[in-house]
Amino acid sequence: MGTAGKTEEEQLGAMEDKSVKGLLDALWCEQTTNWPLMKKGYGDLQQLLTKDISVNNITFKAQHNPARIVSSTAKTDRESIAARPCFLCRHNLPAEQKGLLLLGRYIVLTNPFPIVDRHFVIPSIDHIPQRLMGGEKENGSKREQNGGQNSSQKTIHDRIEDMARLAELFSGWLDVYFNGATCGASAPDHFHFQAGPQGVLPLMEQHAKAPVIERNGGSIMLMEEQPRTVLLLQANSISALCSLWSLLTDGLKEIKVGDDQLNLVIRHTEAKRWRLWIILRSKHRPECYFREGDEQFLSSPGVIDMSGIAVLPRPEDYSRITGTLWMQLMEEVSLPADRFNRLLEFLKR
Ligand SMILES: [Zn+2]
């Protein structure tokens, strides 16, 4: 018996994992068959030009994805956001778009402009800002489940905890992504995660160095051989994860990095439990994005770019990209080394 030695709870958990994957596979299949925009987007994804680009023995991937031009050039200033209907609110979704409700407060949707196969967007059912750490007050809307708890009571832990629980539902299959409001999110006014298959993001396949800090049930590590300022938080339980995250956010406050300046990826597997990669940013877009004519290089890095897939909507940028250029661009939008080192010192205290 495959379930021998497991508690009833573990067996139920295993069944839930299977059913979520089954339901999302069915959703993907239905939407790529019956929703013309999604069918085209998924079809186009199979035809995209891709190549490996390397520098100092590190290999990134480049992808020429014309459909991403809308997202890459999205205006995310307050006035532009206020002037457009929110495309993540349920009442604005296309009639053909269907979703799966998870945790009572997120809807999993297929992304009609995918960067990876099985690219999902996971908006909150409420129109509330893309914040992990409080800040702007949420507007007091009731949760549909969870005892009707007021969502304005959400604390810093809740979103990370939600992210960890979603990752567990997608265990061994999908990673969950988060784009901070000023570093990749094209809807900073509506809270959302994304998800994509495990094993496709180059950064997440790199090794970690020795721990910066070790605690009961978890650790925070530096990543090896990568240009970006990235930490890996590893934990055996959600409570250990939240406890380390709390310590980390104290450190982020100390060096004045807000939750809008983070890209996050979380993965759950049976063997390694939770792994949360934290990518620290200083800039939304590199200088070359704003130049004109031949000087312009149109890249607006979000979590997938920062994890090693350069998403380039224009053919001229795809033909020019090299490993060295991509590394320079990543370094430019990452947190400067001196502030990153101050964070490490804080964590080691
Ligand atoms: Zn909205």
Q: Are any ligands bound, and if so which? A: zinc ion
Strand content: 15-25%
Distance between the termini: 48 Å
CATH topology label: HIT family, subunit A
Number of alpha- plus pi-helical segments? 11
Structural class: alpha+beta
Q: Which CATH architecture would you pick?
A: 2-Layer Sandwich
Any idea what the CATH superfamily is called? ATP adenylyltransferase
How would you classify the quaternary structure? single chain
Tell me the Rg in angstroms: 20 Å
Order of helices and strands: HHEEHHEEEHEEEEEHEEHHEHHH
| Number of beta-strand segments | 13
Low-confidence regions: 135-157
Largest sheet at a glance? 10 strands, antiparallel
The figure for the number of domains is 1
Biggest sheet strand line-up: 3-4-5-7-6-11-12-10-9-8
